[in-house]
Amino acid sequence: MQLSARSETGPAAAPGALRRRVLSALALAPPAVAAAWFGWPWLPLLTALAGVGMAWEWARLCRAGAVGMSGLVLIAGVLAAIATAAAGRIGDAIAVSAAGTAVVFAVARGERGGDPLWLAAGALWLAVPCVLLLWLARATGGGRPAVLWIFAIVWATDIGAYAAGRRIGGPRLAPRWSPQKTWAGLLGGALCAALAGWATAGLVGASSALPLVLASAGLALVEQFGDLAESVAKRRFGVKDTSGLIPGHGGLLDRLDGLLAVVPAAAAISLFGGGVLAWR
């Protein structure tokens, strides 16, 4: 669900690798946009597919390449939460996410190997954004424009961060967590997201573009710190990518980590701000 050119510097920027990244991105973006545009049942189905893939990657990450019973429970819990949200029972879906987290932790504690706490935290980290994305896709959460706006922010942030980081470089943002990220990339991502917010304001006929511009820039910062959070997890377990599912990109988690952070923040704006795109 995410178009990305994530690495700012280094070998990934070699022409061959960059070409693979662009081709993979072009293949990933249309299904996401189409699912958001046509809604049910396509968006829940795509969300379920992404949720299962990310849960599989997270289980393997926390268990040194093995899924195990706790990983199967993790996958089932994420899928159950998404199915509940797809039925319109958002409160129940959040409860299922919390219950699944507890069950994953209990099962993981009885297994050899792996890290029960990290594995259980992943259950919550993956399930809740999937649930909230489906809530946002409903009219009460903003509907189709809100989902497309969120996708645009995430994609614009990644592209802006990549371009600014490559062209400007400069001081590293968090060298202990992700040595390739720069402050220039952070600001470049926020600027591109702000432009996406400005364009969205024009498309939805907002009387003032400023609220959407500011919200978009703020969510760009959230997106990039979501990426850093996943970098911390990968460093904790000593891996570069969560899988090789996407040529030139790594795994689903490598591409969707920012989206996992942005969706809850956008849902909070929608819940307490009267709707993500309600500032007219």
Describe the structure.
Strand 1 and strand 2 (178-182) form a beta hairpin. By secondary structure, the protein is mostly helical. It is built from 9 helices and 2 strands, in the order H-H-H-H-H-H-E-E-H-H-H. Helix 2 runs antiparallel to helix 5 (116-136) and helix 6 packs antiparallel against helix 7. It has helices spanning 15-38, 42-62, 68-86, 90-109, 116-136, 143-167, 183-204, 210-237, 252-272, and strands at residues 172-174, 178-182. 51% of the residues are buried. Mean pLDDT is 85; it is low at 1-14. The longest helix has 28 residues, at 210-237.
Give a topology summary.
Elements: H1 15-38, H2 42-62, H3 68-86, H4 90-109, H5 116-136, H6 143-167, E1 172-174, E2 178-182, H7 183-204, H8 210-237, H9 252-272
Antiparallel strand pairs: 1-2
Helix pairs in contact: 1-2, 1-6, 2-3, 2-5, 3-4, 3-5, 4-5, 5-9, 6-7, 6-8, 7-8, 8-9
